[in-house]
Design a protein that fits this description.
7 helices; 3-stranded antiparallel sheet; globular; about 160 residues; about 15% strand; about 50% helix; Putative cytoplasmic protein; alpha+beta
């Protein structure tokens, strides 16, 4: 993994979204020994950036490694954390994945399935840049918050 310079101005704005702030906070909380203290937020989240060229080099079917599964779980955990900040309702992910990289992820808030996503080709999980990553996270955050607000009695059960 290359240490990349700080993101452009457009990508810097992406780091100000509630989703990206939650994701950075989650990653930094995992750093028990301070190895990432001197790294920028962009450097900490660099593993999420997978260019089209990198994606083309990957096989169509592949076994996801534990690091990729962890990053996917962290991505959706950040959505749940940001949703909790907006609604006051705790939301957390649950993921079931086959060894081939196909599966399902649900974000549960109480008894409510606040978000449901079918995942495939997870060994290729990533985004072209931080702006697209933030947009995707914010899209799912909005859906999650809308679902929680539409069914508060189920979400708080």
């Amino acid at each position: 993994m290359l240490d990349t310079p700080d993101p452009s101005a457009a990508e810097a704005a992406a780091f100000e979204t509630p989703f990206m702030k939650a994701l950075v906070r989650l990653f930094r909380a995992q750093d028990q020994h301070g190895a990432w203290d001197r790294k920028t937020d962009a450097q900490v989240l660099q593993e999420y950036i997978v260019t089209k060229e990198q994606r083309r080099e990957m096989p169509i079917i592949g076994d996801p490694d534990p690091d990729i599964l962890w990053r996917i779980e962290m991505f959706y955990t950040a959505i749940g954390l940001a949703a909790e900040q907006k609604t006051g309702v705790i939301a957390g992910p649950m993921m079931k994945m086959s060894h081939e990289g196909f599966g399902r992820l649900v974000l549960l808030a109480g008894n409510l399935v606040a978000l449901s996503r079918h995942l495939r080709d997870v060994h290729r999980f990533g985004f072209d840049n931080f702006t697209k990553m933030a947009a995707e996270g914010e899209k799912y955050l909005t859906k999650t918050v809308e679902m929680i607000e539409a069914h508060p009695e189920v979400a708080q059960a």
